[in-house]
Amino acid sequence: MKKSKRILWSIFLLAIPMLFMVSGCKKFLDRKPLTATLDDIKQGGIEGLVFGIYSAVKDYDIGQVFGGIPWQGMHNFRSDDSQKGSEPSDGAEWVAPFDNYQYVKDLWASNFYWDAHYSLIHLTNTALQTADSLQLTGVESEVNIAEARFFRAFAYFDMVRTYGDVPKIDFRIYNAAQANIAKSPSAAIYALIDADLQYAVTHLPLVWGSQYPGRLTSGAARSLWAKSYLFRGNFAAALPLLQQVINSGQYSLFSSYFGIFKDAGENCPESILEWQNYMGPNRTDDHGSWYATCQGVRAPNATGWNLGWGWNTPTDAFVNSFDAGDPRLPSTVLFSGQSDDPATGGYGGTLPPYPSVLPQPYWNKKVYADPAMRQSTGWLDGAYWINQRVIRYADVLLMTAECLNETGAGAQGVDLVNQVRARVGLPDITYTDQVLLRAAIKKERRAELGLEGERFYDLVRWGDAVTVLGPLGYQHRCRFYPIPQPAIDRSNGILVQNPEW
Questions:
Q1: Could you tell me if 148 and 124 are in contact, meaning their C-beta atoms sit under 8 angstroms apart?
Q2: Which is nearest to 346 in space by CA: 326, 319, 323, 366?
Q3: Which range of residues forms the domain containing residue 157?
């Protein structure tokens, strides 16, 4: 069933020549420019280049940075909801920088995070320069340009909220020296994000239809743009974008919370942005990613529970943060030694105990693989086919409620929070004042979006990070990660370290 939904899109995405891909083993500044002949490009405008960007953002190379372990480190481990996980000896060097905020300036994960983002930016700039040089016009070309500009904005939003000021490379690179430029102020990066997403909102379609599941839409562009405004505290600018997404009629909350994260819930009406993965029977037609596999339950093979690498495991603080009876807890967390609970998305199994067999007490249930799919694909110790949910409609509802509350219309915003709560059978909350609704929204975002990469950046933008994460070692300067030392060394003094590091 999944293959019939996705086969055409998969063929387009994965048939892109490796010419357009980049290797995660190479540094961005050391790579030769990616090229193609104009005769090749003219056959399909820049569609091939753009489809290559889709593939790169979730593949086994660059895609590590948009869902694999480096992404998990930056986006999840740094929150109070999850930690490195796995066995203590597995990736022990990740604990200090990502769990304890002892940031390291030369670490494979953070180095790769920086380099791969600029590799993706390079792919987008190449597509945009090619379109400009060919003077491409017409709706199809405008859509392709909009897709490339969306991905550039997506990459730069990660960079600016992770590092602050970064080099603004909005042009095609033909040799390494051209990329060796100084940092631009974060305001300039946000201006580029705004311009790119304005174009994307204008030129991306509202909907694609079933032949292109996961392809970018104007709703995805508006949602990302609004998220960037929230990070800047500009609620007035974010609000109309979010309201347009809601009023478009294209999205709705999925009836089952845990069902969103199952195979049948992929590309459901709640999905606004979702990276597409696929693996056929017996390991054929492998178009997957490391996203779910890197988080699967880690156990000895003999137990039958070796489902992945065991990273990004929930913390006691996260488990204890849920209200009693909130079904999102057992839908989000697998408990070692307990039933996987079919009523909240399990398959009728009981996990081995902790610590005698499993190295962690809790696991991320949102990436829990269906045993039937593991048997079908032949990948018993991974879940490479599971899509990564990037932006959900529930996130949009909660962002809209926050914007309404912060602009003096909290009485309207509380209804959106209650929509999210009603989906999981929780009682309505009532609007009393802005302060109480603000606290309720923060709590709701934590429960609803747990382990999905939102919590750390939410705490930073709310100004709560020092209070909440301080006991774990966080300081105000930890809102930005230091620029990787190898990148600085390669620049010969042009790129300078963040002033607080």
A1: yes
A2: 366
A3: 1-74+102-204+481-501
What distance in Å separates the CA atoms of residue 202 and residue 351, rounded to the nearest whole number? 49
Residues 131, 45 contacting (CB under 8 angstroms)? yes
Residues 292, 347 within the same domain: yes
Per the domain annotation, does 79 fall within a domain? no
Q: How far apart are CA 21 and CA 49, in angstroms?
A: 10
Give yes or no for a contact between 337 and 353, defined as CB atoms under 8 angstroms apart.
yes
Q: Regarding beta strands 333-335 and 388-392, do their DSSP bridges make them parallel or antiparallel, or are they unpaired?
A: unpaired
DSSP single-letter state for residue 287: B
Tell me: do 175 and 301 sit in the same domain: no
**Number of domains within the chain:** 2
Full-prediction pTM beyond 0.90?
Answer: yes
* Residue 489 and residue 394 share a domain: no
Q: How is residue 188 written in tokens?
A: 């300039």
Closest CA to 307 of 349, 359, 368: 368
Peptide bond connecting 167 to the previous residue in cis, omega within 30 degrees of 0: no
Backbone angles phi, psi at 350, to 5 degrees: -120, 125
Interatomic CA distance for residues 94 and 99, integer angstroms = 7
Co-location of 495 and 394 in the same domain: no
Residue 219: C-alpha distances to residues 214, 246, 279, 320, 453 (Å): 12, 9, 28, 34, 20
Which residues lie closer than 8 Å to 184 by C-beta, 6 or more apart? 165, 166, 167, 168
Query: Does 475 map to a domain?
Result: no
Please name the helix (run of DSSP H) or strand (run of DSSP E) that holds residue 210, with its range, or none: none
Buried b (16+ CB within 10 A) or exposed e, 192-215: bbbebbebbbebbeeeeeeebbbb
CATH number of 239's domain: 1.25.40.390
Q: Bridge-partner residues for 314, per DSSP?
A: 82
pLDDT in tens, the chain (501 residues): 343 334 334 333 333 333 333 333 333 333 333 344 444 444 457 999 999 999 999 888 888 899 999 999 999 999 999 999 999 999 999 999 999 999 999 999 999 999 999 999 999 999 999 999 999 889 999 999 999 999 999 999 999 999 999 999 999 999 989 999 999 999 999 999 999 999 999 999 999 988 899 999 999 999 999 999 999 999 999 999 999 999 999 999 999 999 999 999 999 999 999 999 999 998 888 889 999 999 999 999 999 999 999 999 999 999 999 999 999 999 999 999 999 999 999 999 999 999 999 999 999 999 999 999 999 998 889 999 999 999 999 999 999 999 999 999 999 999 999 999 999 999 999 999 999 999 999 999 999 999 999 999 999 999 999 999 999 999 999 999 999 999 999 999 999 999 999
Q: Which residue do the tokens 């079904």 mark? A: 327
